[in-house]
Amino acid sequence: MKKVLLLITVACLAFSNANAQLEKTDDVKKQLQTENKDTVAFIYGGVFNLGFNEGFLHNWAAGGELGSITANAVFSGFTIRMKHRHIWTNNLDMNYGLFYAHSNRFVPRKTDDRIDLTSKYGIRLDTASDFYLTGLFNFKSQFSKAYDYSQSNWDTFSTSRFFSPAYFTLAIGMEYRRGSNLSLFLSPAAARFTFVDKYYTIRNPEGAFGVEYGKTTRTEFGAYFSGRYMVDITKNLSFRTRLDLYTNYLAKNSVDSLGVVVKKDNPGNVDVLFDNLFAWKVGKFVSITLGATMIYDNDIPYQKTYIDATGTEVVKDDPGAGLGWVQLKQILTIGFIYKF
Predict the structure, then answer these.
(1) Is the domain of 134 the same as that of 271?
(2) Do 52 and 30 have their domain in common?
(3) Is residue 145 a contact partner of residue 161, using CB atoms and an 8 Å limit?
């Protein structure tokens, strides 16, 4: 009996010590969100949201799509490895959405598609500084083929696909950090590479995605800024925002064989990516995710018209035509959430 009591006592003490250690670890993690410390730690976090919407109509007087299904998946995560003055951070954002409708025989149409990975390695200038000498790598692409559904013959050709385009950015610069929640990175020397299949660059005399006609790559060199901020507004509501700016020192007007300017470009045409995500956990595994992304890229112009199968120029049926060259995406997902 004494041995049993001794084992129970030891188990209780071990459990108590484990809880105390866990609380201490959580406290340190919270502290590292807003402070820079000379420590050894591994921090990770993120949110995954999967939502579905289904509809069915029969003899419905108000009319509408007879049957439809929408599925959206959103993932935004990060890892941070700290070792005294050294820090390695990784951010991964992935989105994918599909829409199925009876009117098009449930052929899936994409509503969202994104892969965005950023990895940074920095060395703190000194143990009391908030500045880090940092190298950055960024990769952007998509999962699958995309189509312009506003065109009547949309399924005869794709507008993009995985690795077409693919963007790689390599930069070295200075980063200001306040814990894991705030990062401001500025580089005066950033190289950006664009890769795309020739299939897309030969469809237009001006090429595609900034890559010239018939070519598959483009190299840029310029200045790059990337700012990120994330915060838990409440226990169940989190917000993440990101602003990327890039200017190409090598940018210049494109001219044809007669010397006529066919595309205006200069270092003042700054590429912009502004990304925002709210995640609200309303139950243990139920959430509402609201996201909005705005992109401006001088290399991706807006085409108001398209040529149909008969060779006729047709104006696109686009409710957002007034936005011009600005790319805008907004998502609202209600469904399953896993936050870590």
Answers:
(1) yes
(2) no
(3) yes
| CA atoms of 77 and 320, how far apart (whole Å) | 31
pLDDT for position 70: 92
**DSSP conformational letter for 156:** G
Same domain, 54 and 23: no
Sequence-distant (≥ 6) Cβ neighbours of residue 102 within 8 angstroms: 65, 66, 67, 68
State the Cα–Cα distance between residues 67 and 58, nearest whole angstrom: 9
d(CA 137, CA 90): 10
CA-wise closest residue to 44 among 57, 54, 33:
33
Distances (CA, A) of 192 to 65, 195, 243, 264: 44, 10, 17, 20
Query: For the chain, what percentages of helix, strand and coil (3-state, to nearest 5) are there?
Result: 15, 55, 30
Residues of the chain with pLDDT under 50: 1-24
Q: Which domain holds residue 274?
A: 38-339
pTM, to two decimals: 0.84
Do 294 and 233 lie in one domain? The reply is yes
Q: What is the pLDDT of residue 257?
A: 59
What's the CA gap between 114 and 137, in Å, rounded?
17
